[in-house]
Design goal:
8 helices; alpha/beta; globular; seven-stranded parallel sheet
Amino acid sequence: MDVFSMAGKVALISGGTSGIGLAAAAMLLQAGASVALLGRSPERGRAAMAKLAGAEERRLFICGDVTCKSDCSLAVAKTVSSYGGLDVLVNSAGRYSEGAIESVSEEELAAVLDVNVKGTYFLTQAAVPELKRCRGNIVNVASDAGVHGNYFCTAYCASKGAVVMFTRALALELAASGVRVNAIAPGDIMTPMTEAQLAEAPDREQALKEMASVYPLGRIGTPEEAAAVIAFLASPAAGFVTGAVWSMDGGLTA
């Protein structure tokens, strides 16, 4: 028995059109799963579908917004109607924000909390009945910023800290139903979100060196490295793992 095989499993991935979510989709597809990618942009959805090689019958894009509860319900229903069930939910949709607390507007705080906290909660809430039926599992994408504080990053840290505690509380709640709930807590990963940060710097390469310098491994991570941990946690190989928040941050929080 291949304990890493996902053959016959069905995964719904929010934020699945780029970064960690898209890398997780590719890895789960390779392991044999069917995947549904949830995202807000049809254009990015089409681009993501084009990047996922082969297995056309095992992948689809669903246009929707995780901050809208009805969109979350529709995404779960579309996944189940397309593939017959739901075994894995990956909450990867996220929004980053930084700045001194005095500069964070009410609108920006609401936007960060809406995506990172409400979006994770709403999609999970919609998925739980199906996951109970399949005795499936959830992998949330938290952050090292949800484990320790970062300078000038209060809104994001608060939102990802909420994801960490949500993961642990829900793992206890769903354990009796055979549903596992885990999270990854990545450090900086070379995603479009990180690229946007670097693009604002006067010297991108210098900014990247400074970003990497705080990590004991001397670099930032790749989406594929984050996706590998997600794929493991979603697989039968992690069958006795629940309520865990897996640091994959190059040693930053060691």
